[in-house]
Amino acid sequence: MLMTLLDIETxxxxxxxxSKTFILFHFIFDLILVAFSWVLATYxxxxxxxxxxxxxxxxLRLTPIPVIVAAYFLFRERYYSRQTLHSWHREFSRLxxxxxxxxxxxxxxGYNLQSDRISRLTLVLFFIICxxxxxxxxxxxxxxxxxxxxxxxxxxxxxxxxxxxxxDRFIEKVRNNPQTGMIISCWADSMGAAEEMxxxxxxxxxxxxxxxxxxxxxxxxxxxxxxxxxxDKFVKSHYNQVTPIILIPQVxxxxxxxxxxxxxxxxxxxxxxxxENHLSLLLKRIIDVGGALxxxxxxxxxxxxxxxxxKLTSPGPIFYAQExxxxxxxxxxxxxxxxxxxxxxxxxxxxWTVENDPRRTKFGTFIRKTSLDExxxxxxxxxxxxxxxxPRPERPELIEGFKDEITGYMLxxxxxxxxxxxxxxxxxxxNTSLEKRIEFDMYYIRNWxxxxxxxxxxLTVFNGFVNKNAY
Length: 471
What we know:
Blueprint: H1 2-6, H2 17-48, H3 53-60, H4 64-76, H5 88-113, H6 120-150, E1 156-161, H7 165-176, E2 182-188, H8 193-196, E3 201-202, H9 207-214, E4 218-221, H10 228-238, E5 245-247, E6 258-263, E7 266-271, H11 278-298, H12 300-313, E8 319-325, E9 331-337, H13 344-348, H14 362-369, H15 377-382, E10 387-389, H16 396-402, E11 418-420, H17 422-425, H18 434-446, H19 450-463
Parallel strand pairs: 1-2, 1-4, 2-3, 4-5, 10-11
Antiparallel strand pairs: 6-7, 8-9
Helix pairs in contact: 2-3, 2-4, 2-6, 4-5, 5-6, 5-19, 11-12, 12-14
């Protein structure tokens, strides 16, 4: 919510004039790094790995293309407006998306402007060098800005008006995140909350005098319930002034974030809409398909061994299909290696597996403990029912019992179900707290990025397969 509030106008940066100048230098240096990356990649390809000065000069002429593309996307997607509020994995994910866009547009433009085919090795080198350079520059810039904000050298003064749970949450976020650079100059009409938190306070009737005296860089106003009329009255009398006004909307049950869109001049506020874009989702799907194919091919000998052992150790089929729910509430058949007696569900009904479950076979106990029984779900990933990473799918019969008891339970179906997930690598799997699992699923959906997916996959490889709660 905090990042959404600060991102209302392109021109209203939370940084002061000194830092805006620094941002300009940072932008220029980003473009220099993009140019440098192409020059270095071309030099390595044609001068170090070969001795082709002619091609080196020929492809060197293409340098302005990635620079122009980078400049367009850096400003269009506002890579400098709120960096310090992003988590590291989201920041790196945004840089990865930027780099991919540069590569795609560069390839399209290069093939149209250059008669010779662009060396694929040069493109790979360019991608790697560019990604490393941009990340290093971002780390240096981010640390510089954050240190100045923490020291109070780049403050953004806020004049806060109103009270209610949404305002309390905003104040808490501001106070607990000094790296944002925001400080509260005064809090009007706080109903005593300002005094309790030892913040400067003023009466509602004295707002204009304090604004004139303190000259804040933004005015933040938010009321709840019947007091909303005060907010409307203030905006009506102050909308025509130069100081930006930020409204904190009263949005209940927005558990996985909000998105503001413009519909023909009419602002629309979406609640519980994941912050994702089509290109990111396309890349996630490409990674899913590539990872599933790779896993099915590489693990095929292991699949054969497990299949034989399942068949030898208990009568019945090798695989077991169970209905589960994925994105948008769609029901699909999820595949597993069978780890229980045949028709165990029909005998016991739909229940979770518990420790020392008598329905398990001897070999089934082993493959459940080591998560080998989950590997056939790579087929579900390949055909689009699941993703490599996402909230773990549950059975429709159990969902009916949970959806009205646990707040936000159905929101986990805003994204495609996964073989592994943020809750699972943090130990919340099997017969553990369902509330905690939902909490971690909500965190994953709110903060989703390709980098977070990669982090979860790596953690799954190193410590996510064997778990004490996998019965």
